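WARN retry 2 of 3 for item q-0093 after timeout on previous attempt; input resubmitted unchanged.
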Amino acid sequence: MYLTAISFAKLLLLTIALNTGWVGGDIFPVLFSATIQGLAISQLLPNLDRTFVMVMVAIGVSSAILESPLLVGSLMAIMFAPINLLPFVILATILLMLIKSLQRRYTKYAPTVFDQIGDWLHGLNIF
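OK item q-0093 returned
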């Protein structure tokens, strides 16, 4: 429970910092939060290898937040995951990239109110 609270608190603080003009990035705080969340979930599954569960959850959560499975998979393979989990990291990265490409192919973009206002202002030659 404590690790989950830390994970969500880190993401909340990251959101506040980014929206108040912080010049830092979001990649490493997201990877930290996802790894902590993976550790929390791995403690709930005592019959599975904790490192495996932690790495797989971290890759999935980070890819969902950052929307870049190749970046997340590369960083996890290079910096966090042990060498014996490298095939699983590569497989998970390829699977997430495939899912993302299918999602892009079959998801249509719905214009928002801001898009419509921008089109209206563009028609008035203001911008």
